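quick one before i forget lol
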Amino acid sequence: MSTINLIIGVLRKGLAHLRRPPRLGRESRGDASIVPKDSIAANALTAVVAIMTFLAAVTSGGVAMVIGSANEWQSEVAREMTIQVRPTPGRDIEAEISRAQALAKAAPGVVEARAYSREESDRLLEPWLGPGLSLDDLPVPRMIAVRVARGAVVDTAALRQSLAQDVAGASLDDHRSGISRMRGMANAAILGGISIFGLVLAATVLSVAFATRGAMASNRPIIEVLHFVGAKEAYIASQFQRHFLGLGLKGGALGGAAAILGLILAGRVSDLFVGTAGEAEAAALFGRFSIGFMGHAIVAAEVGLIAAITALTSRQVVIRTLRRIE
């Protein structure tokens, strides 16, 4: 008799879900939810989504900083060329340098051609050879730094040919190999960021799927009764979708805010080392610890994307589970 009463009670509760008007007060809507609002599983999933969003946001922020620095490097390096003049027996090196400098200044698009003195050339070798070493007997090449106007394109082939014809021991380096390496580094950073983001999404989908199955298992009697008395799959799935959408938005907002706060704190800490050698090296490698407006927009988009994936995953799991119920 107790079993029959239990079944009747479950049926009444299921029918109450179907007959209840869709728009009631706040309290009534909370009672109509199939999935419990506050539970250990819900809090755990919120924490998982927050962690995944934090990892995705930090990854995208790091990729944005690397790409920004690489673009700045490419822009600066593309505006510079180097002419190297090697000492040649029987030729006046100073005259050769002056001739090479004049040819560089005459090239269309060049705004400056500065020749390094002998002392400056020797100082360039100090990091490798050490200070105080006499280089008078060594054939140390002399350098000419060529600066190109912004947006201008220099005919490097013509300039290289002129140098080869008129200046003994001269060679032109337009830094194309360096630009190619920078572009490859930026592409590798983008590929790595996409891979990490894909893994984060995959982990989020799996976590939501397990959490949805757990919620359905704990409420299986109610779900089965609703299903058997004619409740549509869309109605039951929408209950889970709304629940997990809220969890996704909450966890995503927490993770995204933590990532932005972490990047801001990293920028403040980096400001403490301004002027030091470590700061200069870090700035040269990563640029400033700031992702800018576009970076914040990307983090906000990731929060929305992860929340949407959380909701859609729960919906698909519920629908597939209901279709297996006979």
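fyi Residues 14-74+180-324 form one domain.
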